[in-house]
Amino acid sequence: MVPAIPSPSVVRFHPAAAGLLLLLLAPGCGSGNGGGGADAGAPFGVDGGAPDAAWVAAFDAWLAPQVAPLLDVNGAPGKATGVVVGVSAPGLRHAFGYGVSRVGGEAPHGDTVFEVGSLTKVYTGLLLGLAVEDGSAALDEPLDAFFPGGAPSRGGTSVSLLDLATHHSGLPNYDPGYSSGVPMNPGANYAEADLAACMAGGCPLDSVPGTRAQYSNLGSGTLGYVLGKRAGAAGYQALLSQRVLVPLQLQDTATVPSPAQQARLAQGYAGGSPAPKLQIGEPLAGAGALRSTAFDVLRFVESASGTGGPALAAAWQRVLTPYRGAGVPGTQMGLQVAVEPVGGATVYSKSGGTPGFSSHLLFTASPHAAVVVWANGKAVEIRPLALAALERLQAPR
What we know:
Blueprint: E1 37-38, H1 53-67, E2 82-89, E3 92-99, E4 114-115, H2 120-133, E5 153-154, E6 157-158, H3 161-165, H4 192-202, H5 217-231, H6 236-248, H7 259-262, E7 269-270, E8 273-274, H8 285-288, E9 291-292, H9 294-302, H10 310-320, E10 324-325, E11 332-333, E12 338-342, E13 345-353, E14 358-364, E15 369-375, H11 383-394
Antiparallel strand pairs: 1-3, 2-3, 2-15, 4-9, 5-6, 7-8, 10-11, 11-12, 12-13, 13-14, 14-15
């Protein structure tokens, strides 16, 4: 049974997360707000206006030493050449950039394009919320309705859209019968025929749907794929553009960057070497194919507070509703987003990783506050930084 949607409630971030972050500067790591800056568009919220210069300077003075241990001029293992921290609250949208977007390049900033990885899943969750709101899909709808050749089941239970959205489908992380042949890109060139074969029996379920949390890129990709098919869209990008990107004027978010966006795309690194660009076949695009900017990601989550109109706000309510456990004590799953207690407050979170990028998103709904952090290094530990930045952002200004 799908739980009822709770009425909105006020959530506040508690300063107990401060101990999660090491505050020591690493020797030889440069830092500084060389990039970043306020959004060229008006900050969201009723306050309007540009962020206070004194607040920005104080936040940067606090933030720079937190970022420094993550930076390395050559993008060494576990490090990045550049880090951007974007923050958003009523009357404020700002990005702080540190290091360089590539070896020998310019400082990153709020409009630098990066591979968001699994942050894409939150966009896919919102697409599901919109489809449920307009009646074109139902959370308990089985996959059988989308795959005439057959869809997986176990114990007499079919996989539902809710199972896909909460990582309870029992599907493996990737199709075990598929090999991309592309280093560090297991989903490259994955095609509709591959997904159809997977659904028809090539991807046995590891558990009965709805009974166990098991992270699945395959499941998230399948969710984006079937939503696009139901809407008659030409693909994931087309559906996302129609329902989310165009209404919110997110012009720097795409599965395939435009030439102008390519010029602002940071270089990812893995193990001290340039990493290959992310490649994901269309049927899996909803799992992690998006590129975006800190400013666009902030605008996206701001719409959870109502800035995108009532339809998007209602869909966000469905996304942020906790439906099932996430397999981590105290943490639950909304639609493709974790709902977790942090210092006594409710925080929504998602992390992302690609061959050469790490990203982390944290936000609260009411009152709104959001932090997005990206680093152009593989598997850079940025969650403690994001938690501490959200705590700092919530402090009185």
